[in-house]
Amino acid sequence: MIQLFFIFLIAMLIWFWHDTMQAREHAIVIGKRHCQNDGLQLLDETVSLSSMKLRRNDDGQMMFRRVYEFEFSDNGDNRRLGSITLLGRHAESIQLEPHLMQ
Length: 102
Fold this sequence. Notes:
Elements: H1 2-37, E1 41-42, E2 48-56, E3 62-73, E4 80-87, E5 90-96
């Protein structure tokens, strides 16, 4: 019985890791697209997870709400902070520090 529990635990950890990596990749795509649309540059082509909580979506289902932070530049000489909030795979919000509009 204990072996079955550990197999289940390992399977859940693998699923969680895979889901987290997919969400991160999705956040990178969203961040790149948003920066390109605003004439900005996503620096380092990456995001970092800053928080993760369980929340309910509009249908009442429990999902992970992840907040990813990233850096962008408006003129190539500076670094500004931004964040992307995902509920599951849905982008709830994208926030950017004040920057020059292109």
